[in-house]
Amino acid sequence: MADNEQVMNATGEPLVIKPSDLDRDLGFGSVVSSRRNIRLLNRDGSFNVKVVNGPAWDHLISYHTLLTISWTKFYLLFGAGYLVLNAIFAGLYMLCGPDALTGPSIGTPFARSFFFSVDTFATIGYGNVSPGNVAANILVTLESMMGLLMFAIGTGLIFARFSRPTADILYSRFAVIGPYKNGIDAFKFRIVNRKQSQLVNVDAVVTHSRFEQGPTGLERKFFQLALERNRVVFFPLNWTVVHPIDEKSPLNGWTPDMLRAGEAEFYISLTAVDETFAQTVHSRSSYTMDDVKCGENYRMMYEAVDGEFVLDLDLLDKTEKAVGSRK
Amino acid sequence: MADNEQVMNATGEPLVIKPSDLDRDLGFGSVVSSRRNIRLLNRDGSFNVKVVNGPAWDHLISYHTLLTISWTKFYLLFGAGYLVLNAIFAGLYMLCGPDALTGPSIGTPFARSFFFSVDTFATIGYGNVSPGNVAANILVTLESMMGLLMFAIGTGLIFARFSRPTADILYSRFAVIGPYKNGIDAFKFRIVNRKQSQLVNVDAVVTHSRFEQGPTGLERKFFQLALERNRVVFFPLNWTVVHPIDEKSPLNGWTPDMLRAGEAEFYISLTAVDETFAQTVHSRSSYTMDDVKCGENYRMMYEAVDGEFVLDLDLLDKTEKAVGSRK
Amino acid sequence: MADNEQVMNATGEPLVIKPSDLDRDLGFGSVVSSRRNIRLLNRDGSFNVKVVNGPAWDHLISYHTLLTISWTKFYLLFGAGYLVLNAIFAGLYMLCGPDALTGPSIGTPFARSFFFSVDTFATIGYGNVSPGNVAANILVTLESMMGLLMFAIGTGLIFARFSRPTADILYSRFAVIGPYKNGIDAFKFRIVNRKQSQLVNVDAVVTHSRFEQGPTGLERKFFQLALERNRVVFFPLNWTVVHPIDEKSPLNGWTPDMLRAGEAEFYISLTAVDETFAQTVHSRSSYTMDDVKCGENYRMMYEAVDGEFVLDLDLLDKTEKAVGSRK
Amino acid sequence: MADNEQVMNATGEPLVIKPSDLDRDLGFGSVVSSRRNIRLLNRDGSFNVKVVNGPAWDHLISYHTLLTISWTKFYLLFGAGYLVLNAIFAGLYMLCGPDALTGPSIGTPFARSFFFSVDTFATIGYGNVSPGNVAANILVTLESMMGLLMFAIGTGLIFARFSRPTADILYSRFAVIGPYKNGIDAFKFRIVNRKQSQLVNVDAVVTHSRFEQGPTGLERKFFQLALERNRVVFFPLNWTVVHPIDEKSPLNGWTPDMLRAGEAEFYISLTAVDETFAQTVHSRSSYTMDDVKCGENYRMMYEAVDGEFVLDLDLLDKTEKAVGSRK
Question: Any idea of the CA torsion for D147, D148, D154, D156, to the nearest 10 degrees?
Answer without folding.
Answer: -170
